[in-house]
Amino acid sequence: MEVILKDDVKGLGYKNDTVDVKPGYGRNYLIPQGLAVIADKANKKMVAENIRQAAHKADKIKNDAQELANSIGDITLEIPAKVGETGKIFGSVTTNQLSEALKAKGFDVDRKRISFDQDVKTAGEYTASINLHKEVKHTVKFNVVSE
């Protein structure tokens, strides 16, 4: 089943992309949630017109994302967590905690755009990927320290 995405869907595609999905996933999740529409002739024409009109806006959004990535640079964040005697943390560090740490430094990044390269279960140094735009990705280092 071919659908046109109305919003970014993690692991599937970005807004206005035409993707091929299984019929059940499209009918039962993507379309009812308002994340996609069926890729028929009329919808394809409408999306092409929207893309044409939004081309100059897309450049501005990409440039803003690139500026944010450049301003974040090689920053290293400190994430406090409760750590046991063996160095394991109680629970785990979440994208929400990383988003709050970035916000404290003056960078407004949505937690949904952050993903970890590996599970954060012990104290130490890690990296996370920030997906600012479909063409602009940035990595940030963070240290998990004991409270």
From TrEMBL:
Coiled coil: none annotated. GO terms for cellular component: ribosome. Gene3D superfamilies: Ribosomal protein L9, C-terminal domain (3.10.430.100), Ribosomal protein L9, N-terminal domain (3.40.5.10). The keyword Ribonucleoprotein applies. Keywords: Ribonucleoprotein, Ribosomal protein, RNA-binding, rRNA-binding. Residues 1-46 form the Ribosomal protein L9 domain. Residues 64-145 form the Large ribosomal subunit protein bL9 C-terminal domain. It holds the Pfam family Ribosomal_L9_C. Belongs to the bacterial ribosomal protein bL9 family. This is Large ribosomal subunit protein bL9. It comes from Pontibacter populi. The lineage of its organism: Bacteria, Pseudomonadati, Bacteroidota, Cytophagia, Cytophagales. The gene is rplI.
